[in-house]
Task: inverse folding
């Protein structure tokens, strides 16, 4: 593929000029904050560890600042943008890159496999400054092992980054922490100040790297059942594990207590105090009871 020189887009001046030329005002409802920091852009690209073998998905392409850098380094890039006002900007910025496909639509509605459609075989990566208002649900979709993504490098609110990388027993630890850490390893690459974006958001941001593994980090009988247990445990965070699981799973308290005792988990703790290994052991211990419950459930 012919190398194309990049235009310096990650500056406040260039971003303002593009917005003026195309008559675009950033919209809050789309969570639009455009990257204007060359340093931040370089950190994102470095963490992505791109090669010409990679097929990359970018969600929320905006003005194409990150898109251009991805196209110059990856083998194939799909950029998704919901705001149709920005499509003409993307078409111009990325016109010199034959390895880019622009998709207009909602990343929460289009199947992820479709977004990678047409891409050559090779490692799949997601590199994106995720719109703040959809970051968590988008991440959950991208964690699906059937999509075969190997690495995600995403910019999110600092609060979301804290939840992704949180440890048991902390206030940020919850369902998102477990969903990510069940599939792979996460780390904060860097924090980004408000001034790294235009317009500046009300919150600080962070770049997070998630390396996904081919199999879960803990062994459980059934992944869907595991997450059902997690949802029940964290559904009522103030309750002890015994009460939260009995209520959330519809099982007798005695059954929950017996399973906890069998796997060495204290039924009086809260779910947020359990690490992945303890949750996995609990899922194994509860599996027979949940299987019986599913078998005995009335069919419509």
Result:
């Amino acid at each position: 593929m012919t190398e194309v020189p990049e235009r310096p887009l990650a500056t406040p001046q260039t971003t303002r000029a593009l917005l003026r030329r195309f008559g675009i005002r950033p919209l809050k409802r789309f969570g639009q904050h455009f990257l204007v920091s060359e340093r931040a852009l370089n950190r994102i690209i470095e963490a992505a560890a791109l090669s010409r073998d990679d097929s990359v998905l970018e969600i929320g392409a905006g003005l194409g600042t990150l898109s251009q850098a991805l196209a110059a380094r990856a083998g194939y890039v799909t950029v998704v943008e919901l705001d149709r006002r920005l499509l003409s900007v993307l078409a111009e910025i990325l016109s010199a890159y034959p390895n880019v496909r622009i998709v207009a639509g909602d990343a929460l509605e289009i199947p992820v496999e479709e977004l990678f459609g047409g891409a050559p075989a090779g490692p799949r990566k997601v590199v994106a400054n995720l719109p703040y208002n959809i970051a968590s649900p988008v991440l959950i979709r991208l964690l699906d092992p059937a999509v075969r993504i190997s690495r995600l490098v995403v910019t999110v609110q600092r609060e979301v980054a804290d939840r992704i990388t949180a440890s048991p027993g902390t206030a940020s630890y919850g369902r998102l922490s477990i969903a990510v850490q069940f599939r792979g390893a996460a780390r904060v690459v860097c924090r980004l100040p408000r001034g790294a974006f235009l317009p500046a958001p009300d919150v600080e941001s962070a770049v997070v790297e998630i390396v996904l593994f081919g199999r879960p980090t803990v062994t459980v009988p059934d992944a869907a059942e595991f997450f059902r247990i997690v949802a029940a445990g964290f559904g009522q965070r103030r309750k002890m594990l015994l009460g939260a699981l009995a209520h959330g799973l519809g099982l007798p308290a005695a059954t929950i207590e017996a399973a906890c005792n069998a796997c060495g988990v204290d039924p009086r703790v809260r779910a947020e105090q359990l690490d992945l290994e303890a949750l996995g052991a609990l899922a194994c211990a509860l599996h027979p009871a949940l299987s019986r419950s599913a078998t005995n459930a009335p069919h419509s």
